[in-house]
Structures are given as structure tokens and as C-alpha cells.
Amino acid sequence: MERIPVIEIFGPTIQGEGMVIGQKTMFVRTAGCDYRCRWCDSSFTWDGSAKDEIKQMTAEDIWQQLKQLGGDRFNHVTISGGNPALLKSLHALISLLKQHRMRIGLETQGSVWQDWFYDIDDFTISPKPPSSNMETNFAMLDTIMDRLASHRGQVSIKVVVFNDEDFAYAKHVHQRYPTVPFYVQVGNDDIHEGDDVTLRLKLLQKLEWLVEQVVQSNEMNDVRVLPQLHTLLWGNRRGV
Ligand SMILES: C[S@@+](CC[C@H](N)C(=O)[O-])C[C@H]1O[C@@H](n2cnc3c(N)ncnc32)[C@H](O)[C@@H]1O
Ligand SMILES: Nc1nc2[nH]cc(C(=O)O)c2c(=O)[nH]1
Ligand code: SF4
Ligand SMILES: [Mg+2]
């Protein structure tokens, strides 16, 4: 039986980001990433700090844990990471979730393709801006966007923005794929802040700044600006 490296399973909660923000969902977070974003809010998935929590699970193990946590109070499961697209073995989980009539969301940065992408209902691709210190492979991103063009599910692009340079990058990505629903998301620079009131204030100020950038730009007439709703509600906690 193929195994999937899982670092946490949680929910029911709400999708705090992007196209289906507010959707009640469970989360399955896989371990391992091909990127090392400077500001990654889930670096425990790849930096070794939570390596003892990684479980090699079968699709059936994961389903059992989802049911144990969520009972019959969910019909949507979001797969995130790390980069879940590194895992060919996820196809087994995707088909099992389909059998159980779940809708499936995926969060990935668009650096790797998998054939099971075709079975995702809510697909979020989040290419990384300069502040991450990562470099986008646009040839790969073009391939992925091209293959998903005739996808039956919803596809969107979400770029996290921390500064002017990131905003310029976001414009560039939006122009490259102009027909794909496009979201800019507030970057959280304070991933170690423990005081939720302080964090909220900072994030709302950044949201105001980002809204202003979009309002003033004639190249961003058809984009949506969002905060991370879960961070506003529950701060930097894991598993929410
Ligand atoms: C932790 S990543 C996991 C999925 C995949 N590796 C990716 O980056 O798309 C999930 C989402 O969180 C975003 N994210 C990570 N750190 C963040 C931060 N400090 N502030 C805002 N968004 C962040 C990522 O850009 C991505 O859209
Ligand atoms: N509530 C909630 N929404 C999220 N949307 C994307 C998340 C992620 O870490 O991928 C995330 C998360 O960790 N929690
Ligand atoms: S690609 Fe996603 S999980 Fe990987 S380091 Fe960047 S934000 Fe974190
Ligand atoms: Mg998160």
C-alpha cells in the first residue's frame, strides 16, 4: 500500500484563504516542500522541527482520521503542505475522497505537475513573489495553467504580497494568465507574534495598504484582495 507523509490533519474549520474563503473544510497537511520561502508560515512541514510528527499513512488511514475528527460534519477536504504536488501517492487519497463524495481543495505553488490534479474541485496555485527568495519556473507554471485551462473544477491564482516588488510580480503573473481568477493575499510578516490583538492590528494595516495598491492600479481592475481570515481569527496557531 502506498504511503502518504502527513504532518497534521485538522478541522472542521473554514478555508481562510482565496477563492473559497469561508468554506467549511477539513485540512490534510502533507510533509515536505521543494521551496523554502523566507516567510513560510508552515515551515515545520519542511525544516525538520516537527519531523517526529510525520506519519506515513495510507489513504484509508487518513479517511479514518478525518471521520474521527469531523464525523458527518464535513463534505469538503483541503489538501495543503508543504507541497502536496510532490506526492504521486496522493492519487489514492483523492479517489477515496471522491468515493465518499467529498469536494477537494488543493493548495500548491505551481512548481510540479501531477495527473491527479484533474480530480481537484477547488484548485489554488500560489506562485511565489520575490520576498520569498524563491524563483518562479514560468515554463512549468505555463504548462500547469495550460493543462488546467479545460479543467472542470475551479482554478485560481493567489499571490501573497509583502511589498512593492511583490505587487509588481503579482501584476506580471496576472497579465500572463489574464483569464484566470486572480487573488492577492496579505503577507503575514509576524509569524512568531503570540499576541493576537497586536497581530490583527498589523494585518489589518497591511490589508489596507494592499487594497490601496489595487485601487490605484489600472492593471489590477479584475482582482480580489483578501486577508488570511484564519490568522485574523486565531492568530499564528497551528491546526486551525
Ligand atoms: C503554507 S502554503 C502550502 C501550500 C503550497 N506550498 C503553497 O505555498 O502554495 C499555503 C498558503 O499559505 C501562504 N503563505 C505561507 N506563508 C504565508 C505568510 N507568512 N503570509 C501569508 N500567506 C502565507 C502560501 O503562499 C500559500 O498560498
Ligand atoms: N483555516 C485555514 N485556512 C487555510 N488556507 C490555507 C491554509 C494553508 O496553510 O495551506 C490554511 C490553514 O492553515 N488554515
Ligand atoms: S511553497 Fe508553500 S509550504 Fe513551501 S516554503 Fe513556500 S509557503 Fe511554505
Ligand atoms: Mg496556513
TrEMBL record:
It holds the Pfam family Radical_SAM. Its cofactor is [4Fe-4S] cluster; Mg(2+); S-adenosyl-L-methionine. One of its GO terms (biological process) is tRNA queuosine(34) biosynthetic process. The keyword Cell membrane does not apply. One of its GO terms (molecular function) is 4 iron, 4 sulfur cluster binding. S-adenosyl-L-methionine binds at residues 39-41, 82, 126-128. Substrate binds at residues 14-16, 29, 80. It catalyses: 6-carboxy-5,6,7,8-tetrahydropterin + H(+) = 7-carboxy-7-carbaguanine + NH4(+). Binds 1 [4Fe-4S] cluster. The cluster is coordinated with 3 cysteines and an exchangeable S-adenosyl-L-methionine. Residues 20-236 form the Radical SAM core domain. InterPro entries: 7-CO-7-deazaguanine_synth-like, Aldolase_TIM, Deazaguanine_synth, rSAM, rSAM_sf. Its EC number is 4.3.99.3. Keywords: 4Fe-4S, Iron, Iron-sulfur, Lyase, Magnesium, Metal-binding, Queuosine biosynthesis, S-adenosyl-L-methionine. It comes from the Bacteria. [4Fe-4S] cluster binds at residues 33, 37, 40. Pathway: Purine metabolism; 7-cyano-7-deazaguanine biosynthesis. NCBIfam families: Bsubt_queE (TIGR03365). Homodimer. Catalyzes the complex heterocyclic radical-mediated conversion of 6-carboxy-5,6,7,8-tetrahydropterin (CPH4) to 7-carboxy-7-deazaguanine (CDG), a step common to the biosynthetic pathways of all 7-deazapurine-containing compounds. Belongs to the radical SAM superfamily. 7-carboxy-7-deazaguanine synthase family. This is 7-carboxy-7-deazaguanine synthase. It comes from Anoxybacillus ayderensis.
